[in-house]
Amino acid sequence: MTARTFTGGIHPAYQKLTAHTPIRDLPPPPQAVIPLHQHTGAPCHPLVQKGDTVLLGQKLGDTEAPVAAPVHASLPGKVVAVEPRPHPAGRDVPAVVVEWDGSDATVDVQPHPDPDDLDPAKIAAIIREGGLVGLGGAAFPTAVKVRPPEGTVIDTYILNGAECEPFLTADHRLMVENPEQIVLGLRALMRAAGAPRAIVAIEDNKPDALEAMAGATRGMPGVSVEAVHTKYPQGSEKHLIKALLGREVPSGGLPFHVGVIVSNVGTAAAAGELFATGMPLVRRVVTVTGRVKEPANLRVPIGTPFSALVEAAGGFDGEPLKVVAGGPMMGVAQYTLDAPVVKGTSGVLVLGPEDRIPEPTSCVRCGRCVESCPMRLLPLYLEAYYRAGMIDQTETLHAMDCIECGCCSWVCPARRPLVQSIRMAKMEIAARRRRAAS
Amino acid sequence: MKLVVSSSPHVVSPESVPFLMRQVVFALLPALAAAAYFFGPYAVFLVVVSTGTAVACEAVWQKITGRPVSVHDWSAVITGILLAYNLPPRAPWWLAVVGSAFAIIVAKQLFGGLGHNFINPALAGRAFLLASWPAAMTSWVTPFDARTTATPLPLLIPKGQELAGVAAPSYWDLFAGAVPGCLGETSALALLAGGLYLVWRRVIDWRIPAWYLGTAAVLGWILGGPRGLFGGDPLYHLLAGGLILGAFFMATDWVTTPVTRRGRVIFAVGCGILTVLIRVYGGYPEGVSYSILLMNLATPLIDRYTVPRQFGAPARPPRAPAARPPQTGHGHAHHAPAREGR
Ligand code: SF4
Ligand code: SF4
Questions:
Q1: In 3D, which of A188, A129, A125, A122 has the Cα closest to residue A157?
Q2: Which end of chain A is more exposed for a tag (fewer CB within 10 A), N or C?
Q3: How many angstroms does the Cα of residue A237 sit away from the middle of ligand 2?
Q4: What is the pLDDT of residues B261-289, one digit of tens each?
């Protein structure tokens, strides 16, 4: 097995403090805050109201919109509020607040332990009803992803176990502890997409995960486990496809345009649980790490507030500076610990005062941002044009291709906030395109 | 509890501008030791004067123009050292002061300070001194005994050896630095040690010295000999004069060189070609400084025409961007304002 890769990228300090910490199940919190919008696409409408009693796994919200996924109760109890609440994405979102009744009363669920016997469309329907979305962070509805447009041929399903963000180990632990569940989920995903072949891609800094997944997939026709080079952003789907298959997803395109679907191993594990037990997506594994006393991998009900996670990890170790939902490279800084775990929450990272990012100084044109950009853009020029208000020039220099991985900002010795500027430029370009279209 | 809310990424590389600049200063120290050994303590004194002037000029200028004083970024220290390395070992001390002040104030600060200048300040300072005090800038001495002499560089020109009437120094003397020449450029050994350190630590891009030296060696072999084409001595071309200093420490100056990989190769090849052409055909034997300065001027153009093909793009980039964008300011309040929360 050779480690494969792509040009660009960086080698941050990996800080995988919890790589060998087994996943621990956290009991339900007294209250779960379950946002009605936990995926890319349209938000759900509530199906319950204040005062209702709900069961574990009961659907709380759904929508007719094509790109969406329903949300379910992650604990049984009473609905005490349906109102906007803080969401880890940074703004308030309508949410169903359920108070736990202390029981484990569950809705009737139907397992489908052998997805190979099911019709692909039926599998997609089960996945949709189960509320599955990508658990790697982007939270794209899985049922939509596995059924690309008519006429698309998918030849390879890539299971993304790279987990290249520093600090995060949720996927790593899942691969080590629950490889069979991941494999069951992968079988369902492959069948739904009609993919004859699958590659499980894992960074070569996780030998135990490579071994566990190789063991679990042994004898499965068309499925291989491959080590990829340890570097950030190896887990970016475009770069994983490039590294494994040598194909470049065209600018503005999606993986299915080159015959590939990429899903996170966490997503496959959730699919495995859904098919094995019939239980929809109501809990997930979250790495709680950084400046906490006992960094941990916790399996928690969706809707558990971050404060409960920090507490379960032994509390803050010193005065926190930032609390980030996700990894340090692409995660979102939180202003409140009331924000709950949502389907896309892979980690809660606490940073201390030593992680304060210094004030920027002038660009010294060292070119490090250029060298590190996995999309081969010129971040220093994108930033300079954006600051000069020359939005057309940022578009000419392909700002829209930026995947916001943060490599450029990470390497910049002048601490220039490059991604921030490029993100603003992208928003501006998108707004202009919308205006031009209307 | 107050939490800082800012945009990702939330961690940054430990390699800050001052850190990287300090690596360059470290890398310049072996050449200083060599200068002290070959030319005596006065050479070290010149370096100290030049560096002190550079730092003082930067600080005072920033104070009176009301800008944040940024001498702690170490860039003025590098300019001061490099300028001194370009002086004759017995240059009068005021030459170091004038050159350094010109480099910092005219070539750097008048353009807006670090990152905004488009030619290398130390080279600009040297060019200024050479134009204003040509005699003082070319009065060479031999190592150890400090007798007045000529540099071995004219020997590169066809018929140069007869003109100079001396035998060329041995490769070993050239490599070690036991030859007349500028204070900091004679010891290839010491400069290589520092330069390779910078390549190893990835402070500079290996492509620039590699392509610069490679081009100069090949072209020097083709054009540089006293007996017509393909008679040149590539090793002599590499070791004599300021080529190694220029290739590792001046042509790699971030601010004034291209940022794209292909651009850097073009830049370095251009420097190599110009260096040999000036050495062989020019009126002035040392081509390194002017080659780099000329290529500095071409840098915005090179960047413009070497935009990489972005990931997932069709084979050719559709359009080149306009020339160098306006520079960003001095670094205040560029981060999104931090929101403080519950
Ligand atoms: S990394 Fe920073 S300092 Fe270097 S060229 Fe890019 S923006 Fe400028
Ligand atoms: S954030 Fe965008 S510009 Fe910066 S390195 Fe990543 S893709 Fe390139």
A1: A188
A2: C
A3: 14
A4: 999 999 999 999 999 999 888 866 678 99
